[in-house]
């Protein structure tokens, strides 16, 4: 009997949960234990788009064909990996991405910080593409992808209107189930609450005025072990260990000189650490929810294109670094926790 389900277009949802054991096949399973059944309460439905790309790494062999026609063995696949890219608008539902980058679920006092040992509390993700026409369990899925977050980019500008988020994962390419039992109440596809760039408040270095910010971008990268260690006598990536962090802050702001020109003589300024605070208002109005990003960075690019005028655009790019304090703290204590 043919499958009565109807498939058309992009009629699916993206759901993401936390795996405590890389590629374990379920969510909320502690390391060393069998994966528990996946429940809707442990998943967050992300209202964005997902792209999954398999990467085949090839090398030329020493085989020399006896003709000018290339031989299939002239170039062979050595190792395989998978890149998973999620893009969407930033909102309350994006908390799970912060969990995965900082490897901290519900951090102390709601403040995310870089850990001295990034692998102290390792968190991986499982991403599902779940068809909306699936009304009974097991749900039909296109993909159940185990992955580890590599980079997280949060950026916004006046031109776009929204604050966007891009999350890039390294995924396994092991065969996963084509159907998944998901228990509990299906939440459906809720309308999101994206953050608007017009609600951003910023306290920036060099006396830059808050009202004049035109764009900003925060890039956070996990630094993984080298390929030789990561693949460990296998064609497929083993558990990806994080050996460090990397990050960058950039922004464009209207600068009102007003006697502060000396602050822009960066090469003559002994102060190298530049604190910048950006507050994203996720839910404006009464009972509004805030996400505060506090960074300390070292300027790597500093552009003042028209300093002859009293007001001009100032472009700043800085590498996250600090001698005494945490180079980045994200205070999410004012947003409701989403159990994931």
Describe the fold and architecture.
There is one protein chain. The protein is built from 2 helices and 18 strands. The model has no long low-confidence stretch (mean pLDDT 80). It has helices spanning 95-102, 227-231, and strands spanning 12-19, 38-39, 44-46, 49-60, 75-89, 111-113, 124-131, 139-157, 163-171, 179-180, 182-183, 201-203, 213-224, 242-256, 273-283, 289-303, 311-320, 328-331. With 340 residues, it is mainly β. The longest helix is centred in the first third of the chain and has 8 residues, at 95-102. The strands form 2 sheets. The protein has a 16-stranded antiparallel beta sheet that branches.
Quickly list its features:
340 residues; mainly beta; 16-stranded antiparallel β-sheet; 18 strands; globular
Write the topology of this structure.
Layout: E1 12-19, E2 38-39, E3 44-46, E4 49-60, E5 75-89, H1 95-102, E6 111-113, E7 124-131, E8 139-157, E9 163-171, E10 179-180, E11 182-183, E12 201-203, E13 213-224, H2 227-231, E14 242-256, E15 273-283, E16 289-303, E17 311-320, E18 328-331
Counting H and I runs of at least 4 residues, what is the number of helices? Answer: 2
Number-wise, the strands total 18
Shape descriptor reads globular
Tell me roughly what share of residues is in helical segments: under 10%
**Major beta-sheet overview:** 16 strands, antiparallel
Low-confidence stretches: none
> What Rg is obtained from the alpha carbons, in whole angstroms?
23 Å
Distance between the termini: 38 Å
Quote the beta fraction: over 45%
How do the helices and strands follow one another from N- to C-terminus?
Answer: EEEEEHEEEEEEEEHEEEEE
Q: How confident overall, as mean pLDDT?
A: 80
What is the oligomeric state here?
A: single chain
The class by helix and strand makeup works out as: mainly beta
């Amino acid at each position: 009997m043919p499958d009565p389900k109807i498939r058309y277009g992009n009629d699916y949802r993206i759901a993401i949960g936390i795996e405590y054991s890389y590629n374990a096949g379920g969510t909320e399973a502690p390391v060393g234990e069998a994966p528990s059944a996946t429940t809707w309460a442990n998943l967050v439905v992300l209202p964005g788009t997902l792209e999954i790309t398999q990467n085949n790494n090839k090398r030329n062999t020493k085989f020399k064909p006896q003709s000018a026609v290339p031989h299939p063995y002239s170039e062979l696949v050595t190792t395989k990996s998978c890149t998973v890219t999620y893009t969407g608008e930033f909102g309350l539902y994006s908390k799970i991405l912060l969990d995965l980058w900082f490897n901290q679920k519900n951090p102390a006092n709601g403040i995310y910080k870089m850990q001295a040992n990034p692998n102290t509390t390792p968190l991986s993700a499982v991403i599902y593409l779940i068809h909306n026409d699936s009304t009974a369990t097991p749900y039909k899925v296109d993909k159940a992808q185990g992955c580890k977050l590599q980079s997280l980019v949060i950026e916004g500008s006046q031109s776009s209107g929204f604050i966007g988020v891009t999350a890039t994962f390294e995924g396994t390419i092991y065969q996963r189930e084509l159907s998944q039992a998901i228990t509990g109440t299906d939440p459906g596809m809720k309308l999101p609450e994206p953050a608007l760039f017009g609600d951003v408040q910023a306290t920036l270095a060099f006396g830059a005025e808050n009202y004049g910010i035109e764009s900003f971008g925060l890039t956070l990268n996990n630094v993984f072990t080298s390929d030789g260690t990561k693949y460990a006598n296998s064609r497929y990536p083993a558990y990806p260990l994080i050996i460090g962090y990397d990050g960058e802050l950039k922004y464009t702001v209207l600068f009102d000189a007003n006697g502060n020109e000396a602050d822009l003589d960066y090469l003559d300024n002994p102060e190298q650490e530049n604190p910048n605070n950006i507050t994203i208002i996720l839910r404006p109005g009464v009972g509004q929810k805030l996400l505060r990003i506090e960074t300390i960075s070292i300027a790597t690019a500093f552009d003042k294109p028209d300093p002859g005028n009293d007001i001009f655009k100032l472009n700043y790019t800085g590498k996250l670094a600090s001698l005494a304090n945490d180079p980045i703290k994200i205070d999410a204590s004012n947003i409701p926790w989403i159990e994931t």
